[in-house]
Design goal:
The chain is α+β, with helices and mostly antiparallel strands and about 1750 residues long. Helices cover about 50% and strands about 20% of the residues. The protein has 50 helices and 51 strands. Helix 2 runs antiparallel to helix 6, helix 24 packs antiparallel against helix 29 and helix 45 crosses helix 50.
Length: about 1750
């Protein structure tokens, strides 16, 4: 069967099309009467149902649940359906909101999840949603499913509910689907059209109920919202006013905020807490009792428990509330206990004050009753929290502004002090005392201290370096102690121990003072110290001193003051470090001078050695004289040691007595006991240097002290192969130990002396060798010559190498020689002698030789030993054709050669080779001689290196000193000119050209697209002038200066003629000015280049790294100068900006104050804005235009003359580019015209000539992107506005928009309030009518009278009337506003529907008819009734029931005044209510008749059951009685067969008696006549009684019957007999249907209720059977029932009995796994529950 769809009800304005009547066969008169009676009964029943629905709707307009239940109940009942459901549409889903008589499983599922998330296509709900029409399914099993899931869903639904036919009717409002009513039948029985129409009618009533509830709730909510909004607006205004009038003070704002929060949220008291670290401190309270306040203040600050409300608000940053503080888990929080006990707090709300997701505080409010706060109240509290944050932020900003001004002043003072200290540092290099004094004085003065001290670390103590403003007694006490050792517990002691600031608020409380330590006692009692702070002076983490400042009163220093002292401490460390570096520089110079003296002395000694070969005395004498002189000794002695004898062989300035002692001859200090312990004795013992600081303090001073007065001495041994050969001893007659350098010098002389001794020994040995005398002499002469050359040409290697090669080749009889020096992996020829020309040319072509393989040079490199080749042509290198070797033989003619390495500490530095042109090997002595020459070459190289380094060091120190002086001068200029960079630039270029002669130094700065010349200095004025003419340079990459700035890199052009191609144009500029080379150093600040320093010079070639470093230093100093100037100017500008900002802030605050005071006075606000903006932005005039239609008119102005005002009012502006205002409107943004006369588009000449302005600024007033006005400022001269001024005007424009918006919102609120008031009146009248309808359901006249009166009053009509249809005509039944005479005339007057009256026309057209003027309507003018009426305006509304007019409602006015749409709509509402009232009366009459018939039927049924039970039970009891007598053998023993029959009779009789009792019980339950006999009972006795009764039956089936029950079950109150009946039924059924296994009974008690469960191991029950198990005459599987018996009433009766006890019974079972029947019921039942 196909679904049928149709409309729910006819249109309210068009008659419904009735379905065609079905042809029926003629019926006899009797059946026709019965059919009419049936129809009448149905109509009355429907009327009663409609009346019930309307009664529920009218009596509880906001209670939709009751209305839905009544609608669904009546729809299901009147249509003969089994059950029904009502679903509300929620977007794409449906929610089940009502069920009637639904199957248990279906109802349980809907209770668990009422949402229908997805509706399959083809589902009735889907069709209703798409068509908005009823859907009728005659048989769901025959419907075709669209999807598999729909099939599965339908199958499951049918299985659980048994549904076959269904009807789904939409609930529609204005074509919007509100919901669906679905009713179901469990048999195939289609619903009739009348039933569909009836459910549609109920659906329409449900929609009316929903709409009424919605309107009522909206009205209530709107009224509440308006009231609440007004209160909140007033509170907000009050709070903002307090905030604006209490600048910098939070307390008034907090109190205002808290009082309004408590009042508006219906709280009793409240607190405001401010965040303080991890805790909260009290900021404000309101309404709290004094005792509670005392506890709260004592507990502040608190650290809230994160588990409690305030802690959760603090941690989670969101509001929390506790409905009842007493119900919360108990804590030992004093504040919580005080809140409950002292303040009576029950409900608590805690709201965090958030700024940038950080909690600034918490607001808490309390109620003294348990009443949770609503979401709106929580939102309101969040608004108050936001306002509190605004107040805190405003106060913070104001305080920061004040603090910033104070900081700027303080910073300037500190900067001055720092500058003064730096000035002293720069003016006193190397002098620390004035620096320390200045630092102490400034630290004391700037930090507002009374005393100051600077200490320097000395060993494990301190010494005073500077004092300021100390008492004489304290100064004397401190200076009396050379070294101070402060104890712990004092400022200096703690600072030294911790290397951190030590700050003592009151020294009298310090432990060291209490212990009376002299150090701190002197400070307190002599110096007057009370508060003191000590700041350590640290360098690389090491303590080098400390600064202490003190006050004579207890007043701790601030963090900034301590930070300032730390800055001074850092400056002191810098001064100390600078002094140390300067002293090191001076010391280095002294060392160099000393080293030079020593070198000179060494040279003299070598000269003596070279000039006196073989003579040691002059050598020793020269060495001793130089040692005494250079070591600043008084006298000296040189001893020769031979076999333990010491003989003095040289003296210098020896005192006479000591000389006499020495001339006595050699003596043996090692063997003479008298000389034990003397310096020479110790020297013999140790063979090491012996130094005595004071000879007089020694145990055995020795002869020098005794005869020569020696006090300090050093004795340096001469050792050869660990053998002592002599000693140098020098003496001082005063106690002055020799330095390490002096000792080292004497050691050097000792080494040279050993060499001299050894040389002499060798010379003597050579002389003794007569055969070798000539050769040795010649070699010595050569060596001497070489040494002479070395001594004559210090630092020059070429003559030394030439002399060596000359002597080596000559003495060794070689043809020529070569000397190579190492160069990387090769050897470069450094000198040659006698080289053949061809070979010389070859060496010039290849000056570097690279040894490879096994060639001689490679062998020498590998072995570090000489290589001797007897014949080159036979050597492997020549054979394989090694180039350099072949060249030696073929070009140089070499045959024999020796190659000797030049080694320095095993490091190869070169090689020396000599060649013979014949095959003649060299002798060993000759090779040894060449080795000697090689060693001397190494010595010469090393001496030259040392001399070069010495010279370079001296040059570097001189250059460094010059650079340091220049840098110091530049820094002094920078410190003296903090506001101007130019003096620094001038100083840099002046210092630069002095350090770089024949050059010019240039400072360049970028300036837009060019580079300008900032400073230049050079030696040649003409060249400098030429360079000046080059500037400004374009800022392009092809100019060297610009490229360095753009690319942020150093550029060095060693030769401008060879400059890179892209830099050639810039290089030519400098070539023209006479310079050939250029270096540009960018001035970098971070990653940005802010200029450059250029060095142009005449000589070509690159700069050295040191020169580049100096240029970088100049660049850094220039950056410092620029940065200092920028920072100083920024500081100055910041101060000016702060002043300006404060002015603007004040003006803004004034404007906000005006806005808050004049919320609804827009003109005052706009005037204030125009004036404030004009004054702050230094404008001559200010004007605010507001939009009126398509034009913009002047609404407020400042500085206008009377004539100007009149001109502006006469000439509004339109959008367009011809005026500033019009342009702002067009573009929707700020427009700034610097000069209107120079603007080609400006066309508002009338305005310009009238107002005389030149500069214009226009700012749009934007609301949601729409321009609603323009804020314009003008100046009479050309003077553009600054960005800050434009930003300020934009702020004022935003404030103007806020003010305009406030006024608009206020007007809207007023209008909304009026509309709501009118709506409330109408709603009230409608409610009155509905109330009258509900109270006077059967008094139609009262309802109609109330209705016409309300309609006339609310629609401001002069008269109103209702006519009802009777016998084809419309008679007057009620009226209002007419005279008694008119009413009397209308009594017998019938109105026929025609167009001559408004009422007749409304009936004919079935719609509302509105005639504005009856005299102007031709059809009404011709009507006879118009002649007797003064009515002018009429509205008529038909009363339609199912599209048919049953009456008409008319309203009239005596004057021409049309009814509004709302009034006409309201009249329509009253017309609908009239129809409802008329219909209710009709339906009530029908219901009355139906009720009477039902009562008669019920009485007949009860009488029948009573008679039947009596007639059946009397004979049945007699049968059972007689049967028992026979069984008991009263009439003799019956036969066995008879006993079997008797048992069957007894069993069946008892079964039949049980059936009769069940039917009677069910009858009593349904009739409400079953009464519980309530009394005390024991549940244990009930269970045991049932067990005793049933146990034999279980035993007969071999079933185990178990009981699980605790012993301490409480006694209960209820009907023991009925409960026993229930348990017997459950246990009996379990045993009956269980064939094997067991049956168990479980009983327990908890939470005031008994729980009973009966479990069996029987066959189980399917889900389908479980749904109907507790219904009357329903059983599980019929096959089992047939075998086991039963009526299907036991469980239904048990369920009713349990429910009458207020309990619940249910079953849980699976097929094949047994069943469990469970029930719960109250332990104490005081009254039986009513069953539905």
């Amino acid at each position: 069967m196909k679904r049928r769809t149709g409309k729910t009800r006819a249109s309210a304005r068009k008659p419904a099309r009735k379905p065609a009547a079905r042809p029926r066969p003629a019926a006899p008169p009797g059946s026709r009467t019965a059919e009419l009676k049936r129809a009448l009964a149905e109509a009355r029943e429907q009327q009663a149902a409609t009346s019930e629905v309307l009664k529920v709707i009218s009596s509880s307009p906001g209670d939709l649940k009751g209305a839905f239940a009544v609608v669904l109940k009546n729809s299901t009942r009147l249509c003969g359906a089994k059950f029904g459901a009502l679903h509300l549409c929620e977007g794409q889903t449906f929610r089940t909101v009502a069920l009637h008589n639904a199957p248990r499983g279906y109802a349980a599922a809907k209770k668990r999840d009422p949402i229908i998330p997805h509706v399959e296509k083809g589902n009735p709900l889907d069709i209703v949603r798409r068509t908005r029409k009823p859907v009728h399914v005659a048989d769901v099993l025959k419907e075709q499913a669209h999807t598999d899931s729909e099939t599965q869903h339908r199958t499951a639904f049918i299985r659980t509910s048994g549904v076959r036919s269904l009807l789904a009717v939409p609930m529609v409002r204005n074509d919007d689907l509100i919901g669906v009513i679905i009713i179901y039948r469990q048999e195939v029985r289609p619903f009739s059209d009348e039933q569909i129409a009836l459910v549609s009618h109920f659906a329409a009533q449900a929609v009316i109920a929903i709409e009424n509830a919605r309107l009522l709730n909206e009205l209530r909510q709107r009224t509440d919202d308006l009231t609440e909004s007004l209160e909140q607006q007033t509170a907000t205004s009050e709070i903002l006013k307090t905030i604006s009038s209490s600048r910098g003070e939070l307390e008034p704002a907090f109190h205002a905020l808290l009082s309004n929060a408590v009042r508006l949220c219906g709280a009793k008291f409240g607190n405001l807490w401010l965040r303080e670290g991890d805790g909260l401190r009290i900021g404000a309270t309101h309404g709290a009792p004094p005792a509670y306040l005392e506890v709260m203040r004592a507990a502040s600050p608190i650290r809230p428990d994160p588990r409690l409300t305030m802690g959760r608000s603090l941690t989670l940053k969101q509001p929390f509330q506790i409905a009842d503080l007493r119900a919360e888990p108990a804590t030992d929080s004093k504040l919580r206990i005080a809140t409950i006990e002292l303040a009576g707090g029950r409900t608590l709300l805690s709201v965090p004050m958030l700024k940038d997701n950080e909690v600034l505080g918490i607001i808490t409010i309390y109620r003294q009753e348990v009443k949770p706060f609503t979401d709106k109240q929580i939102a309101l509290m969040q608004s108050f929290a936001t306002q509190a944050v605004i107040a805190i932020d405003n106060t913070r900003l104001l305080n920061e502004l004040r603090q910033r001004t104070d900081d700027l002043s303080e910073s300037l003072e500190q900067q001055t002090a720092t500058s003064e200290v730096l000035k002293v540092i720069s003016s006193s290099p190397g002098e620390l005392a004035p620096v320390f004094q200045t630092i102490v004085e400034n630290a004391t003065g700037v930090c507002l201290a009374n005393h100051g001290t600077l200490y320097l670390r000395e060993g494990d103590g301190f010494r005073v370096a500077a004092l300021h403003n100390m008492t004489a007694a304290y100064t004397e006490a401190r200076r009396a102690e050379a070294v101070l050792r402060p104890p712990p517990g004092t400022p200096l002691g703690d600072a030294a121990a911790t290397k951190q600031v030590a700050h003592f608020a009151d020294l009298r409380t310090a432990k060291a003072y209490i212990d009376r330590h002299p150090f701190i006692v002197a400070a307190v009692e002599l110096g007057g110290y009370r508060t003191a702070a000590c700041v350590p002076m640290l360098k690389d983490g090491e303590l080098i001193g400390a600064i202490t400042i003190a006050r004579t009163e207890v007043q701790p220093f601030s963090e900034k003051q301590i930070e300032l002292v730390q800055n001074f401490a850092a400056q002191a460390v810098i001064a100390i470090e600078n002094t140390r570096l300067l002293n090191e520089l001076r010391q280095r110079t002294d060392d160099l001078s000393e080293s030079l003296e020593q070198q000179t002395a060494t040279s003299e000694v070598l000269k003596v050695i070279s000039s006196s070969p073989g003579e040691l005395a002059p050598v020793f004498q020269a060495m001793l004289e130089n040692a005494v002189k250079l070591c600043e000794a008084k006298f000296g002695v040189f001893f020769r040691c031979r076999d333990g004898d010491f003989l003095s062989t040289a003296y210098v300035d020896v005192p006479f007595r000591y000389e006499e002692f020495l001339r006595r001859g050699a003596y043996r200090p090692g063997d003479d006991p008298r000389l034990a312990g003397t310096p020479l004795h110790r020297l013999i013992q140790s063979k090491r240097i012996v130094q005595t600081n004071d000879e007089s303090t020694e145990s055995n001073p020795g002869p020098a002290a005794e005869y020569g007065g020696a006090r300090s001495l050093i004795a340096v041994p001469l050792r050869k192969d660990d053998e002592l050969v002599g000693a140098f001893v020098i003496y001082r007659t005063e106690v002055r130990p020799f330095t390490e350098k002096q000792i080292e010098l004497v050691q050097n002389f000792a080494a040279q002396a050993v060499i001299a001794i050894e040389n002499t020994r060798l010379l003597n040995e050579l002389r003794q060798r007569t055969d070798d005398l000539s050769e040795s002499l010649e070699q010595q002469t050569a060596t001497s010559e070489v040494l002479d050359v070395i001594s004559r040409t210090p630092g020059e290697l070429e003559p030394v190498f030439a002399s060596m090669l000359d002597n080596a080749t000559r003495i060794c009889q070689a043809r020529y020689g070569m000397l190579w020096l190492t160069e990387g992996d090769g050897f470069r020829a450094a000198a040659t002698h006698g080289l053949p020309p061809a070979h010389a040319e070859e060496r010039q072509r290849e000056p570097v030789i690279y040894p490879t393989g096994d060639v001689p040079l490679a062998r020498m490199v590998r072995t570090r030993k000489p290589v001797h080749i007897a014949d080159i042509r036979t050597d492997h290198a020549y054979v394989i054709g090694y180039g350099p070797f072949v060249a030696l033989a073929d070009m140089g003619g070499a045959r024999t050669f020796v190659l000797v390495p030049m080694l320095k500490e095993d490091k190869l530095v070169g090689a020396l080779a000599i060649f013979r042109q014949e095959v003649r090997p060299f002798s060993d002595k000759q090779i040894e001689l060449v080795q000697n020459f090689a060693a001397q070459a190494v010595i010469a190289i090393e001496n030259t290196r040392l001399l070069s380094e010495l010279r370079q060091r001296t040059d570097d120190l001189t250059e460094s000193l010059e650079q340091q002086t220049a840098t110091s001068g530049i820094l002094e200029v920078i410190s003296n000119s903090p506001t101007d960079s130019q003096p620094a630039f001038d100083a840099i270029v002046e210092s630069g050209w002095r350090l770089f002669p024949n050059a010019a130094v240039i400072v360049s700065l970028p300036d837009g697209a060019t580079v300008r010349l900032a400073a230049i200095a050079g030696a040649n004025p003409a060249s400098v002038a030429a360079i000046r003419n080059v500037y400004p340079l374009p800022l392009r990459s092809d100019f060297i200066t610009s490229a360095a700035i753009i690319e942020r890199r150093e550029i060095d052009i060693p030769d401008a003629n060879e400059a890179p191609t892209h830099l050639r144009p810039g290089a030519l500029n400098f070539l023209k000015s006479g310079y050939s080379a250029m270096t540009v150093m960018p001035m970098l600040r971070g990653d940005a280049a802010i200029g450059s320093i250029s060095l142009v010079r005449r000589a070509t070639g690159p700069l050295s790294e040191k020169q580049m470093a100096l240029l970088r230093t100049f660049a850094s100093q220039a950056v410092i100068a620029i940065e200092n100037t920028r920072l100083f100017n920024e500081l100055r500008q910041r101060t000016e900006d702060l002043s300006e900002s404060l002015q603007q802030q004040t003006a803004t605050a004034d404007v906000l104050k005006v806005i808050s005071r004049s919320t609804f006075d827009l003109q005052t606000v706009l005037n204030t804005l125009a004036g404030s903006a004009s004054r702050l932005c230094v404008a001559d005039k200010g004007v605010i235009f507001l939009r009126e239609g398509d034009v913009y008119r002047v609404r407020a102005n400042y500085g206008f003359s009377r004539e100007a005002e009149e001109f502006a009012l006469r000439n509004p502006l339109r959008p367009g580019r011809g005026s500033t205002t019009g342009r702002v409107v067009l573009e929707g943004r700020t427009v700034h015209v610097p000069d209107v006369l120079a603007d080609p588009e400006y066309a508002a000449t009338g305005y310009q000539s009238t107002f005389g302005y030149r500069t214009n600024l226009g700012v749009p007033l934007l609301r949601e992107g729409t321009c609603i006005g323009v804020f314009v400022l003008t100046r009479d001269v050309v003077n553009p506005f600054t960005d800050k001024q434009i930003e300020l005007v934009t702020t004022f424009a935003d404030q103007a928009v806020i003010a305009i918006e406030n006024v608009r919102l206020f007007d809207e609120v007023q209008k909304r309030t009026e509309d709501l008031s009118e709506s409330l009146q109408q709603q009230t009248a409608t409610a009155d009518v509905l109330k009258t309808i509900s109270r006077s359901t059967f008094d139609l006249q009262t309802v109609l009278d109330t209705l016409v009166e309300s309609a006339a009053r609310l629609c401001r009509a002069d008269g109103a009337a209702i006519r009802l249809a009777r016998d084809g005509a419309y008679r007057h039944v009620s009226s209002f506003g007419f005279s008694a005479e008119q009413k009397e005339q209308w009594k017998d007057l019938s109105l026929k529907p025609d167009r001559g009256s408004v009422a007749g026309r409304a009936v004919l057209e079935s719609r509302t008819v509105h005639v504005v003027d009856s005299k102007a309507d031709p059809e009404l003018k011709s009507s006879p009734s118009s002649k007797f009426s003064n009515v002018r305006t009429i509205v008529g509304v038909p009363l339609l029931r199912e599209g048919v007019s049953i009456g008409v409602l008319t309203l009239s006015r005596d004057t021409v005044r049309a009814f509004s749409e709302k009034e006409i709509e309201l009249v329509g509402t009253f017309a609908d209510q009239a129809v409802i009232a008329i219909e209710n009366v009709r339906l009530f009459d029908e219901i009355q008749e139906k009720s009477r018939q039902l009562a008669e039927a019920s009485e007949h049924k009860s009488r029948f059951l009573a008679n039947m039970s009596h007639e059946l039970r009397t004979p049945l009891n007699a049968i059972l009685g007689y049967t028992e007598l026979i069984q008991d053998s009263v009439y003799g023993t019956p036969p066995e067969k008879m006993m079997t029959v008797l048992e069957r009779i007894t069993r069946n009789g008892k079964h039949l008696l049980g059936l009769i009792n069940d039917v009677l019980d069910l009858s009593k339950i349904e009739a409400g006549q079953l009464v519980l006999s309530l009394d005390s009972y024991s549940i244990r006795d009930v269970v045991h009684g049932v067990y005793s009764a049933i146990e034999p039956l279980a035993a007969s089936k071999n079933l185990a019957l178990r009981v699980e029950m605790p012993k301490d079950l409480p006694s209960g109150r209820g009907d023991e007999r009925r409960l026993t009946q229930v348990l017997l039924n459950l246990v009996g059924n379990a045993i009956k249907f269980t064939d094997k296994g067991e049956v168990s009974i479980k009983a327990s008690a908890s939470d005031g209720a008994y729980s009973l469960a009966v479990h069996d191991t029987g066959p189980g029950i399917s889900e389908a059977d479980q749904q109907k198990l507790f219904q009357e005459f329903q059983q599980a599987d019929n096959s089992i029932t047939k075998s086991k018996g039963g009526t299907g009433l036991g469980l239904a009766i048990s369920k009713r009995i349990v429910e009458m006890h207020g309990g619940r019974i249910w079953v849980e079972s699976r097929v094949g796994e047994g069943s469990t029947f469970s029930l719960t019921l109250p332990i104490k039942v005081e009254q039986a529950a009513r069953l539905p």
